[in-house]
C-alpha cells in the first residue's frame, strides 16, 4: 500500500513540475506578444495621424522645377492631426523612380510643421528632361503623387 502512495506522490510532483514549466513558457510568450502588439499599435497610430498633401501646382511647372538650378520645389501641407518634424529625414522623395537625396526643408507658415501648416521641400540635383514626370512624396507611410510636364 505504501508503494502505491509513494508512486502516486512522485507522479503528482512530476505533473506539478510540468505544469509550472508550461505556465512559465506560456507567460513569457504572452508577454512578448503583448509587447509586440503595443509597439505595433504605436506605429499604426502614427501612420493614422499622419496625412500630407502636395499643394504645388502641376499646371505651372516653372514653379515646381527650376531647370537652371536643377532644383525641384514642392509645397507640402500637413493635413493630419499630428505635428511632424520639418526635416529632410521626414521625407522620402522619388522622382521618376529615382530617390532624391539632397533635400532642404523650410516651414513656410509658422515655426513648426503643425497641422494646417506648409513646408517647402527643395530637392537639388534633380535633372528632368522635357516630358511627363512623376514625383512621389512619402511621409510616415502616407504616399502622395504629383504628376507634371516640363
From TrEMBL:
GO BP of this protein: archaeal or bacterial-type flagellum-dependent cell motility
Keyword Repeat among record annotations: no
Origin superkingdom: Archaea
Pfam families in alphabetical order: Flagellin_arch-type
Keyword line: Cell projection, Cilium, Flagellum
InterPro entries from the UniProt entry: Flagellin_arc-type
PANTHER family: ARCHAEAL FLAGELLA-RELATED PROTEIN F (PTHR42200:SF2), ARCHAEAL FLAGELLA-RELATED PROTEIN F-RELATED (PTHR42200)
Protein name (Swiss-Prot/TrEMBL): Flagellar protein FlaG
Lineage, broadest ranks: Archaea, Methanobacteriati, Methanobacteriota, Stenosarchaea group, Halobacteria
